[in-house]
Fold:
Amino acid sequence: MPKIALINNKGEKIKDIKLNDEIFGIEPNNQTIYDAVVLKMASVRQGTHKVKTRSEVSGGGRKPWRQKGTGNARQGSIRAPHFVGGGVVFGPTTERNYLKKQNKKERRLALKSALTYKANDKEIFVVDKIELKTNKTKEFIKLLEDMNISGKSLIVVKELTDNLILASRNLSDIKVIETHEINTFDVMNYKNLVITEEAVKMLEEVLK
Structure:
């Protein structure tokens, strides 16, 4: 089992804890990680992009010129795609479905693979607890500085508090979630994974 230091809010080491090999020490599966990230990104697409076809643009109710005798090619409508202001051919419509699926075993494997990469790269910080006395952002920033954590960070706790939510919401490179909200995309998208000891135990119970 991989060992990792358990630290307090001041960044001081309390003890070494062992992470579950079945979650933080597996053989990573890159394909499932890729599929999980694509699924997440596809799920947030609105799909509201739309262009008008030749049947939807206004105008073009009659032939632009007579069928014969002008020397020009015959035309039926000035709103054909090759005319300026005409309809668009094969453009995006709202009928396209961006829904992607991934079964439960693959989702779990993808998350375990992402967590394994974080453990291997020494980018996991396990904290005994995260407590804030106020909801001030500067207090939260100082907390991270004391723990020697810098850069984009995903904070995972067992239960969110009002102070933690309010203190972190103005920081664009910080995301705070509860254990059941953890997903492959967020783990891979953030450089550091800061997780409380309680959240680790809960995560191991769910994923093992």
